[in-house]
Specification:
The chain has a domain of about 45 residues: 2-Layer Sandwich (Double Stranded RNA Binding Domain), CATH 3.30.160. The protein is built from 1 helix and 3 strands, in the order E-E-E-H. The longest helix has 18 residues. The mean pLDDT is about 90.
């Protein structure tokens, strides 16, 4: 049998913690793609599912090169 090899796509995931202690993950390349969880393991599982769902409805996304995150005090 000839198995088709699926090519991996990579997405940048931004992870933050809210005031209630929940971890929040978002994917800047996919509009509206975000989720939350109490643990990092659960968060990563959920964001993978969210990415798959977002890709089902959004086929036109912009792949950006990750440069970094900068924190600024004002």
């Amino acid at each position: 049998m000839n198995k088709e090899k699926k090519m991996s796509r990579y997405f940048n995931v931004v992870i933050e913690k809210d005031s209630d202690g929940y971890l929040i993950a978002s994917v800047p390349e996919l509009k509206g793609c975000h989720t939350q969880a109490k643990s990092l393991d659960e968060l990563m599982e959920r964001i993978k599912e969210a990415i798959e769902l977002c890709l089902e409805i959004e086929t036109d996304y912009q792949e950006n090169e990750f440069i970094g995150i900068q924190r600024i005090a004002i």
